[in-house]
Each structure stands twice: as structure tokens, then as C-alpha cells.
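request received
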Amino acid sequence: MTDHSDEGTLFRSRKFTDWPTVKEALISKDIGGVFILAPMAMQLVADGIPIKVVYLGHRDGTAIIVGKDSGINDFKGLAGKTIAIPSRYANQNILMHKSMKEWGMPYDSIDLRELPPPEHPTALQAGTIDGYIVGEPFAAKAEVDGFGKVLYHTKDIWPEFISCVLVVQEDLIEGRRELIQELVDGIAKSGKWLDEDIEHRMDAAEVSAKNYYFQDPELLKYVLSKPVDRVKYTNLAPLKPDFDEIMELAHEIGVLSRRVGFDEYADPSFVRDLEELDWNMDRLPSAESKP
Amino acid sequence: MKRKVMIGALVWALLLTVAHIQLNVGWKALSDEAQVRLGQKRRELTVGFLPVT
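response:
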């Protein structure tokens, strides 16, 4: 394992713990790109920040979690309950509204409360919320620890769900196009590698748990295998129909201050056919060595 | 006269170049790019993430 790409570029990752700091880092150009919530990317563009969505982080990988003994067995059971969402700008918020609409429930029938993702499981366990909707591994946390159950995986209620998207600074697209292409190709190659073999996923869980997420590797292994299509790392091209649907719903519920056209916030020109890309690697070296 | 025009043109081009670097490129970016091209440094890009999937 190396600390740079095949082409020699050093891609550094910077961990953030809240969305406002991410926004600040983008505005100050402290970072070249970031994995960010899809509706938030749209709103940033609506606010005049020159960024573009160039790829997705993953598909699915979100679940609605309720207490194990809550007696809630379908979406209607969430009426009158308090459910945590990661942010009003999260696609998880849009999904809750989409589902309320589909189930014929008024938008105020569920008390949606913004809470930082790492606090979702503890809040459910403490009884301050009745459930939550969040990206992994925090959804699986309550399941693995035995106090929560999955009400729905997004793959079952909004297939190919989009949560995080990769946005990059527009001036990098104009001035350093080859760098962005390298980044997108790298994500596409690693996604293809992850989805082609369960052993690859187990290796990735070990490495990312110890070096990036600082989470229990067993939790990440669970997320990446129970079931194996709980989160997917292929089909990551930003597609206009998917984004149009998110944008319209986000605008309808007031998350977006105005409608934003796909061409304003997305640039899918870096997407290449996965057949052209190969990571040429079987298993990851020991998770002991920091990448 | 011809020499004066030549020198003037060169100074003008130099001033425009400096202004372009100062306003559009940035001295650090230029220095980094030069070091990358000379093989003294790797190209770098920092990408942020929040640990949610």
C-alpha cells in the first residue's frame, strides 16, 4: 500500500466532525474537495459557492432505526414519534418527507430532529428519541449493540439512494482537470474492487476502521456484509434524473432556497466506464500498516 | 529607439506576468507546481470527509 496514486499524486484526507466546518473549509479553499450531503451541495451552489458534484461516495448505506421493543413495524408507526436526522440538508431528511407523502401522512406528523450522526445511537438508547435515520456505521451500531432494529434499509424504500457526493472546487475543474480525473478514477476503481469480492470488503473494513474511522472493525465488517448490498460502491455516476428528484423534493419542503439546475451543480464528465478501470490488486496488505 | 521599445515591451510583459501570478495564480501555487515539475514534490489534493459511510 502506498500514500499516493499510481500517477504519483498525494491525496490527503481530512476528517471533519460537523457540516458547518466543512462549508467553511470549502469557502476558504482549505480543501480541494469533500464528500458532502447531496442537498447541501445544491444549496451551496444556490448560495454562489463555485463547486461541482463530480461523483458519488456510495449508493444506499442508510437505514431507519427504531427501538428493538418499540412495536414499530412500518413507516406509519412513526407518526407522532421523534426521529433524528443528520441534518436538514441531508438526503435522509428528504427521504423522510418523501415517505410521509407516499404513506399519506402530513409533513408534520413526525417530529424530525437534527442530531450529529455519532449521537444517534446513544440518543435512542437513552430514550430521548424514538428512532433515527442515518448513514452507516451509526445505523448498524444500535443493531449490533442489541437495542435497535432496522425498520427499513434505503435499498428497500428508495433503491440506489444517494447520501454523500464528492464535490470539488470549480477552479480545479478548470485548471487542474487531470487531478480531478485521477481522484474520480481512484474512487471508481476502489469501489469496483470493493463490490467484486466480500474478502475485499473485509480487508477495507480492517484498514479504514483503524486508520480513518477509528471504529470497531467488526462494526464496519457488519455494515459491509449484513446484507452485502446494504451499501454499494458502484453505479456512482451523478445521474440527472436522480438529482432532479432530490432537488424538487428539497425545494418543495423548503430545504433549498431556489430550484437549482443539474448543470449548475454537477459535472459528470469525469465518469468513465468501469470496464476501462482496474485496480490490479487482490487483497489489501495487513491493516496494521497505516496507509 | 528600437532598443527602448524592446526593453519597454519586456518590462510591460514582465509586469503583466507578475500581476497575473499575484491576482490569478498565487505564488505558492506557482512554487508548488514548479517543484512538482522538477520532481522535488508530489502533487497534492486534500479531500474532506465526515465519517458517515
